Amino acid sequence: MKRYVLSVLVENHSGVLSKIAGLFSRRGYNIHSLTVGVTGDPKISRMTIVSLGNDHIFEQISKQLNKLIEVIKVIDLTDTQAVYRELCLVKVSVDSNSKLIVMEIVNAFRSNVVDMDEKSLTIETTGDEKKISAFIDIMKSYGIKEIVRTGLTAIYRGSRLENDVKVI
């Protein structure tokens, strides 16, 4: 199974997300992660969709997405020079002995403590999937109370614009 990353520009109105999710569901394709946000143009949203499968499944997904009226452009970011990032919030149990150690780890990962009390720290960390997973693995030994991950978002590296990229 290969990971495919699609950047999909869509019309920004109600029901579009449901249509795209339904397309995946009807065909039995799984969405590994999905992030959506408005672009610089309030009429357009960008979806970053990560799916697992083979080349045949990916080709079918791309064709089906392009058939939807609300889809403006489908861009394949798989195997490209792109910046991939996630945001993760982790609530970790701490006591007076472990709080300083956890904060040192937070600094080593260039993360931030965004909330704290006597018994827990809530930490914000951003990075690629491997960094987030490594951070979570280290925090497990301190007792994770909650984890929230945004899913992958991506953009081309350097000065390339979406008009310069391969549209599928």
Automatic annotation (TrEMBL):
UniProt GO molecular function:
acetolactate synthase activity
Gene3D superfamilies in UniProt: 3.30.70.260, ACT-like. Chain A, domain 2
Q: Which SUPFAM superfamilies match?
A: ACT-like (SSF55021)
**Pathway(s) it belongs to:** Amino-acid biosynthesis; L-valine biosynthesis; L-valine from pyruvate: step 1/4; Amino-acid biosynthesis; L-isoleucine biosynthesis; L-isoleucine from 2-oxobutanoate: step 1/4
Known Pfam families for this protein?
A: ACT_AHAS_ss (PF22629), ALS_ss_C (PF10369)
Enzyme Commission code(s) on record: 2.2.1.6
PROSITE patterns (alphabetical): ACT
Q: Which InterPro entries does this chain map to?
A: Acetalactate_synth_ssu, Acetolactate_synth/TF_NikR_C, Acetolactate_synth_ssu_C, ACT-like_dom_sf, ACT_dom, AHAS_ACT, AHAS_small-like_ACT
What CDD domains does this protein map onto? ACT_AHAS (cd04878)
Q: Does the keyword Kinase apply?
A: no
Query: Which of UniProt's keywords are assigned here?
Result: Amino-acid biosynthesis, Branched-chain amino acid biosynthesis, Transferase
Q: Which reaction is recorded as catalysed by this protein? A: 2 pyruvate + H(+) = (2S)-2-acetolactate + CO2
- Domain named ACT is located at 5-79
Q: What does this protein do?
A: Catalyzes the conversion of 2 pyruvate molecules into acetolactate in the first common step of the biosynthetic pathway of the branched-amino acids such as leucine, isoleucine, and valine.
- Known partners and oligomeric status: Dimer of large and small chains.
- NCBIfam families from the xrefs? acolac_sm, PRK11895.1
State the name under which the record lists this protein: Acetolactate synthase small subunit
Q: Which lineage is the organism of this entry classified under, starting from the top rank?
A: Bacteria, Bacillati, Bacillota, Clostridia, Eubacteriales
Q: Which gene encodes it?
A: ilvN
